[in-house]
Amino acid sequence: EIVLTQSPGTLSLSPGERATLSCRASQSVSSSYLAWYQQKPGQVPRLLIYDASSRATGIPDRFSGSGSGIDFTLTISRLEPEDFAVYYCHQYGSLPRTFGQGTKVEIK
Amino acid sequence: QVQLQESGPGLVKPSQTLSLTCTVSGDSISSRTYYWGWIRQPAGKGLEWIGRIYPSGSTDYNPSLKSRVTISLDTSKNQYSLNLRSVNAADTAVYYCAANLRYWGQGTLVTVSS
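ok -> structure tokens follow
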């Protein structure tokens, strides 16, 4: 099983700042099959990024994903008020599918 | 766009079977475009992949739950189901169904308690 470790656990930033979230896998993620989800309190997870760097439909271009192998990054170039949420990485390159434990982006 | 909706009991007694149904609209459950999955999330915690089923009926399960889980299709109703046997308090969570982990249902809270 691939274990995904996200860091930091909590990121305290102000609107307009840049957010950099990390996801490290315990072994290489096949074909960069790595996704990022955003989840706000009481809401369903929303797919942001798939295949490590492809934005899902309707996702603003301030969200970008990068990485390969075992190291992946989600970058939010300039935080908007609606971006404060929990972010999960997810690998779908091997079974069982696994999720990271989440990074909370909170308002500083 | 495909839409999904979970349904089932919100309260299950310990040692019993949790049974949920996901009703799919906007496409056929037999469509080869999708595979159909279940994910759960305990309150205040992260996401756990339970398993998935393909239109062919082929399934994959999380090894941590495999001995207790069955996912099945009902093509006549355009639904698929989750059965989790011998539940305990640790199975209390919001359960989501999802297509390709891209399109998600709204989730349903299942509490395991006597």
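Chain A touches chain B at residues 1, 35, 37, 44-45, 47, 50, 56, 88, 90, 92, 95-102 (CB under 8 Å).
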